[in-house]
Amino acid sequence: MEEQAWLLTTIQSLLDTSTKLEERAFYQGLLDLANEQLKRLDQSSGELDGRIWNPSRWG
Amino acid sequence: MKTLIIVAHDDYKQSGTQQFLLHQVPQAGEVTWHLLANDQAIDVAHEQQLLREHQRIIFQFPLYWYSVPVNLRQWQDAVLTKGFAYGTNAILAGKEFGVVVSLGEPLDEYQAGGREHYTISELLKPLQAMANKLNWQYLKPLVISQFEYMTDEQRLALVIDYQQFLTLNDTSFAGQQQWFLNQLRNRINTTQDPLKLAQLTTISEQIEDNYDELAELRWTVDLIRDEEE
After folding, report:
1. Chain A, 16-45: which have a CB under 8 Å from a chain B CB?
2. Are residues B154 and B87 in the same domain?
3. pTM
């Protein structure tokens, strides 16, 4: 997950160094989007694990 | 897709909301910002030509006495004529219609039991009826409540909400991801700074990888779910 940590840190640093409102809005929106992606990736892989781990199908 | 923003305000230069929105209109997109004059005759042919040329039509205004400003109301009478906008031989069907409305009162007062008692959906019914008459698809309105009291964070979010309202086709999360990827591509094409260019390129690649991985995961989960049910 190193690349995901890099993603969030880099967007945050672009946000911190931007002065124009439009730029800050873009990077804030992008940061929110990246966080939402990570949340959904985590939820979906959790759901996949749960569905694969299904004792009733162990015949 | 071309978007036309029809702005109605009796004193837009003094309006913090309207000035803020004006500066956030995307430069790269195909967006036309069109201010209705307050004291001039309406050039009907020109207004009708603007409608013909755009696919998404936006009314942007402050709510005055639960209605649109008078110049927008006059514009409706003059421009949306029978035979052009509706009725036999009408040519405007199939457009998208959005409302950007600003309020002086807090949004949560616009509900049963609140000071304003009626919801925004109820108050905007005449515009929804207009869209229905014209066979325009009515979009979920963008409501801006008490702009002057918004925090910095809320204003940053408003910029993106507004830009997406003007240019986003698909409001699902997939559509949002594609919108940001497009914006990143535009920035990559215009950035001169080599360090920033490298950062934006890698960010774009990672966002796209996440997008693909998410789509693949959802596909697999849906497949297993369908098998189980």
Report:
1. 21-22, 24-26, 28-30, 33-34, 36-38, 40-41, 44-45
2. yes
3. 0.92
